[in-house]
Amino acid sequence: xxxxxxxxxxxxxxxxxxxxxxxxxxxxxxxxxxxxxxxxxxxxxxxxxxxxxxxxxxxxxxxxxxxxxxxxxxxxxxxxxxxxxxxxxxxxxxxxxxxxxxxxxxxxxxxxxxxxxxxxxxxxxxxxxxxxxxxxxxxxxxxxxxxxxxxxxxxxxxxxxxxxxxxxxxxxxxxxxxxxxxxxxxxxxxxxxxxxxxxxxxxxxxxxxxxxxxxxxxxxxxxxxxxxxxxxxxxxxxxxxxxxxxxxxxxxxxxxxxxxxxxxxxxxxx
Length: 270
Hints:
The chain is of the alpha/beta class and 270 residues long. The chain has 9 helices and 12 strands. The strands form 3 sheets. The chain has a 7-stranded mixed β-sheet with strand order 5-6-4-2-7-11-10, sandwiched between helices. Strands 9-8-12 form a 3-stranded mixed β-sheet.
């Protein structure tokens, strides 16, 4: 049985750039992009065309930033998609490669961020699980100094993006992917958690703020209701554009009211 033809719409580098300009992306800006390639339609050139379209809309003075997370560099005792047998855990902890910004692939963030990570001239921050990759003249300013014990807080690229007046682009992605909401978690009472991961000198355990995207969809709904959010279409994808600082300030108030959490130390499973 023949494969049915794609239903489209047909999306190109130029149509991505034009739609982003219509949404409000301006040359010289800083954009934190969360993307879903499959939501766009049939993209001629795939993720490379999307990245080029983003860069075209930003122009040579703009900077593109994406989450380049590698959450699989974590304790196998916590893995659930899929889990691994307990008798494997010690071997995995002893042999899991440590984070290398140049070679560690992204995990769970989609093909567009992986394309940005490997783009000529791209820079990547230092956190082994929640790094960001950036292209553009302000890439180093955004990615430098990401503390390895601060996933998404004051010593992460999110705080630099906030201070630099960056905007968030949700391109076919929902508010549940909106990483800047996590910066608000660092500014309100939140549990701490001890987590294991591979380090440069063997297995290590660090204490971090416990982060969760639980109820981020509701948070985003209320944010969009109450604050200015530019909305439109890029291909078939719903697109949203808004300032990082606006989203973080709103999330601080919303999370404290609607999702309060106790400050304590949580322990991972043995």
